[in-house]
Amino acid sequence: MTEIVIKELISPASDVSFLNDIVALHEKAQRENSTPYLYSQDASFFERNLTGECLNSIALVDNTVIGYAALRRMDPWPSYLTPVNLPINTCGLMLINLVDPKWRGKGVGRKLCESRLSIAEQHGINHLFSTVHPENTASMQSLIKLGFTVLEEREMFEQKLRRCVLYLDLTSGNKLV
Fold first, then answer.
1. Is-contact 60 66, C-beta < 8 A?
2. Are strands 91-99 and 5-9 parallel, antiparallel or unpaired?
3. Cβ atoms within 10 Å of 57's Cβ, excluding its own
4. 4, 44, 74, 80 — which has fewest CB within 10 A?
5. How many CA atoms lie within 13 A of 47 on its CB side?
């Protein structure tokens, strides 16, 4: 059986070496429409993430990138989310969970999510948020199995995309205070 390795990227100087592979993975997912609710991003988004804007994880098989995930601190709070009464320095946003189309359904996305939960705890992020298209039932179910709850469904971004906002409290289960 092929081993899936999850690597936490913690060194922006070397992490950017994965940029082309991650951009190619994103383009493949768009081209094959394997992730129909994927918000389109350009290379600069991934470069900013890899050079310090986010805490990142990649999934590798035989040194080939098959998945990518990013976790961003909520400082500043993104304009498309409603701030809550929590210390901003303890809040994070799970931005993207990207899996190679041929590896979907094999637990890669779950492993990337679990990696971000671990990274969050290591970096003092106790309150996690995520947004998911309401018809993306696979992602919704994965996050709910990890303990997230759906707070609301609303339109976001300039494109007025429908998104469900999900929340997880890593310190006490699942309660938004």
1. yes
2. unpaired
3. 24
4. 44
5. 4
Q: Which pTM value belongs to this model?
A: 0.89
Token representation of residue 2: 């092929």
Supply 86's token pair: 């929590």
Q: In what order do the strands lie in the sheet with 149-156?
A: 5-9, 55-61, 64-73, 91-99, 127-132, 161-169, 149-156
**CA pair distance 162, 21, nearest whole angstrom:** 29
Amino acid at 109: G
> In whole angstroms, what is the distance from residue 165 CA to residue 163 CA?
6
| Alpha helices (runs of H) in 37-159, residue ranges in sequence order | 43-48, 108-122, 137-145
Using the Cα atoms of residue 20, residue 3, residue 105 and residue 149 in order, give the sign of their dihedral. negative
Question: Per residue in 7-46, pLDDT tens?
Answer: 998 777 778 999 999 999 999 988 887 666 677 789 999 9
Give one DSSP letter per residue of 79-107, joined into a string. TTS---SS-GGGEEEEEEEEE-GGGTTTT
Helices and strands, counts by H and E, the chain: 5, 7
Are 75 and 88 spatial neighbours (Cβ–Cβ below 8 Å)? yes
